[in-house]
Write a structure and sequence with these properties.
6 copies of one chain form a homohexamer. With about 240 residues, chain A is of the alpha+beta class. Chain A has a single domain, classed as Ribosomal Protein S5, domain 2 (2-Layer Sandwich), CATH 3.30.230. Chain A is about 30% helix and about 30% strand. Chain A has 5 helices and 9 strands. Chains A and C meet through β3, α1 and β5 of A and β3, α1 and β5 of C.
């Protein structure tokens, strides 16, 4: 049923079409192209046989994430961060969020003194790049650990739960799920939620870009987020062949 | 009534002692020392008679924030960011949060082509530096605008609402208000909430550092935050002489 | 006919399969995915309505290029240049080469005070990324200028010639065309040649990685390069619909 | 007796009111707020259980200093050095001066393979911040070493002498002691002198900002400095409870 | 016989006057002032008793080069790279070229775990600074290794061949040897060639700054380069007293 | 008369041999090679037809200085500052000193909206590079202004006085003039003095590297400095042909 209110015609609680393409590039241990509508992010998972200094000799692993956007992934070209010589505050905020979210998904003590590097690079942006990145990184990480299992380095994929992420927000007065760029650039509130497949919160980051919002709206946004995340986790598990 | 559970003996819903000292230094248009227990932050508000390039000629103002910690404001000395040549991701995340929160408090179109710079520098850290910073910056900004009113540059302080901030979290299984350092470094969940004096949300940033948390916990944390913020707004207004 | 000498079995003068996919992403004025075998590079062309300071008021345009590799486009993960805070010497060398090559293809005086930004980002590397980048950037730039023609901003695409690029080298004693990664990492000589569709040289960059090479070898390498470039230019024109 | 010549009415050879507040913050081994009139600097001394690479295994300690100003410690807001990504030449000059001065005060061979970090952060500037910083850092360092004595790590505070610092200058033709901001920004000559409690020179840095000055003036300035430093050393020792 | 065509009156195949002054400064193991006409470059060779991390324990040496220009070595003053905080792309390109060229001249396995640092600093620029640098660095490196031979650290200078470099180009339609600044800034093609004393190619870097050039021109340029390099190698050997 | 005490055999009050070679390079408006014994510094003066932003439209000129050392100007090779991406604190301290000293020599209001850039680059270091730099820069600046006089841009060289610089120090208990490297690296006190030809102080920077020094020593050092500077100014004027 089409919706007059949203530019895309989606219902308030409808996700965009979400696709997860595994083995997207050939070198990485895990490599996923994730698409949330027109938003496209390449997520690779690389295993390195060492840990950062602060963990040396402690017998546990580490997981870290980096995020980037191709200069013309956006409507108007952005400066290339490598050329400017620094990552923006926004970039750092997002890659810290991805790292925390994925560390919540895996048992760092169960994969030895190794580091899992997650690289999330936005090829095309249309809103929701950070939530797409977390969602795709979960699958890429799972694939990378599966490779360690296959080569008998570890006994099982050290996943504690699945994590997925989605944005919710208030667009023209209505709480909606999975904002695209047109909505994102014109909304009053934007909230990113990261949840486990058990429906527990890993991260909540909400910002009132226009009007501050009341508790009832907050409650409705959290409901929408949970519904969306359950749908996305199903897609993740399907993509990995864990369910049908 | 003392509480066995919290290191400080505070009740689960008790704030630390909060103090706001105005005119703490002499040069800034607004200058506040804010204390949340042993956490001490100097917040200054400086008015500059120009706006960033992207706002030139648009007849409106801008508000921006920076955050820093003295190297030995913490238990062990941190490297000085100016000497390292860059601000950490954490620093940038916090100063972006402060900026967004305070932009929500004031009407940027009502103070002409001026920039309000908020500088929040932590002298002593004991948990909750970012929430103390937002709380103190509100008062410093109010003072700076009041000076513009007194010198008849603008007609009234362009405040849309008061904003204040507090942290809540789950410490040893119990939702608590206003975490100090001992709690913060050993909690499962840490959430920072920024709200208006009307009880509307400006920012919510929650992270499950240990276990992911369920919706009931989320609800309890938001209740605690609202109660704490109402108490803090009262202190802000008292400090400014707006109420008794 | 398969070749015992080359890991891929290609004949000494055989290119890899080359593909040019236009309109690969949706925001850029020109956007091409170029593939030389397993090497995949996204080339976007962005038009900006201004020129660098040194050209202001001179009534002519400018063209500039940037190059990057996704951290896990390679066999082992490379550090992200944006995170390290600087582009490597190799990166700068390559993007300067792309810029000079493409400036040779277009008449900078014929498109007004505009800058064409070419961004070449390697998604997957298997040797020859810089020659693929130049080849794809030519097509992306052509598309971007065509858009200006369609919107009647300029009268015609200001191309002076087509340019394309290919590598040649000495692999296990034999001069070969279009080195892939296995050859590139074990060759004695590596030369990148950029030529116009008239067979004239735009750039020649040859390096004896192992043994220095004699004049007869040089002559053979230049022959191979010219043959390969003629084949590639045909593909470029076909992709653009300029020939069948 | 008031002086018509100086903005503050001080006699030519009168110091401003100088205060030293120990234990100003709670984490540092030594922590002093030093005030020279309206100039306020927080000096902390932090002990780290290692030395820089060039001293490893040599059985001696090291002492180093850093200096900073809060952005709005001054009349008009200065850019934050951490945000700009580098320390100014002035900042580096001052922190090198503080480091050399304090290394002259202590016996580096007498406290083992430890580093004493001195951080001098200006909260409010009104002239003479570097001399205040040296003066306060001496007391903070003494306190930090005293803590090592108390915990029986070393046998005695390894002080060779006390050092203190003061500025002298030529203001409107008259040599004066301890320039405040109004004098400093309008003087012909500005000289910073660091001396031991025995009246021996550790550092002399004089600059003719306006007219070059003659030898007789130099002699008078050095006399004033010595008198001032003797007064300051007395205050330092009193603050530490070493004399009454 | 003077040439109407070239600003200097040189014949098309005539080098400028080339001079190599050994022991130009006193500290370096090898130190050469090289002059190609008015182009003057100081080349020093410094031996360090360690290798970069990636070679540790492999029993072989390393050779690396850096290049710089004094700010006023050029017609108009350039910004100082140390002050700007980064080396330009051009500088990096040149120092990488010098490094590769000289690594081709020496047997890195024959001088133990040592690094030879070549520093090429342009005192006065008049075209051809990179070819002068390579030419001078060869002699400085030879001197540095000779010192190791004299002190009986190694048995013989580990030279595989001599390398020298020269530029060739097309100036006003004529292929010419050794472009000076006037020619360089107004030529259609500029090519730098590095060759061994056996006439084998080490590096070729040609750029069509104006018109792309055909194969016949390429052949003529390579002939000129070979002739010039044979003359230069003779001068290098004479300077070192290896021939008369 | 030779001196047993000093490594060079110089008398306590003897300068090294000082040479000033004008027109050392051809592009700069002023270009001087200054030698203090084995210390050799190239000083160039470049005139730019604009002033920094803070002086725009004020009708006066500006003078600024930069300092650098070639990596192997010293006994062991130093890292290249351009490659490290920043100038050391020592470099900045020295170039600020050179700038202040030369600004004291010239009337900035008398040469229009122009900037004089002084670049002092150390080719070979043997102690006293900063004093040699100031001494040489004075002559280079004079030459640059003379060129403006010759081309009738200004009426006269805007020199207020001559400035020159020398180091003095306490070497093995004896105050000596003009320390060379052997003395400098083993002295108790090192003081750099910049004076006008009238014997007035422009800068005094003294440091007790070992023992703090008393007032009598200070007086003797200032006497030595004045004597040395008078000798150097005579050499400067002779080099410029102002006296015989």
């Amino acid at each position: 049923m089409s919706n007059q209110n949203r530019p895309s015609g989606r219902a308030a609680d409808a996700l965009r079409s979400i696709r997860l393409t595994r083995n997207y590039t050939k070198h990485a241990e895990g490599s996923v192209l994730v698409e949330f509508g027109d938003t496209r992010v390449i997520c690779t998972a690389s295993i390195e046989e060492k840990v950062p200094g602060f963990l040396k000799g402690m017998g546990q692993g580490w997981l870290t994430a980096e995020y980037g956007m191709l200069p013309r992934s956006t409507h108007t070209r952005m400066d290339r961060e490598a050329a400017k010589g620094k990552q923006s505050g926004r970039t750092q905020e997002i890659q810290r969020l991805i790292g925390r979210s994925l560390r919540a998904a895996f048992d760092l003590e169960a994969f030895g003194e190794r580091t899992l590097h997650l690289d999330c690079d936005v090829i095309q942006a249309d809103g929701g790049t950070r939530t797409a990145a977390i969602t795709g990184a979960m699958v890429a990480a799972y694939d990378a650990f599966s490779e360690l299992v296959e080569s008998k380095v570890i006994a099982a994929v050290p996943a504690k739960h699945f994590v997925a992420a989605i944005s919710v927000g208030v667009y023209r007065g209505t709480p909606v799920l999975d904002l695209d760029y047109l909505e994102d650039s014109d909304c009053d509130t934007d909230m990113n939620v990261v949840m486990t497949d058990a429906g527990h919160f890993v991260e909540v980051q909400g910002t009132a870009e226009g009007e501050a919002f009341d508790r009832a709206t907050m409650d409705r946004l959290l409901d929408l987020a949970q519904q969306g995340i359950f749908e996305i986790v199903t897609l993740q598990k399907k993509a990995l062949g864990l369910t049908r």
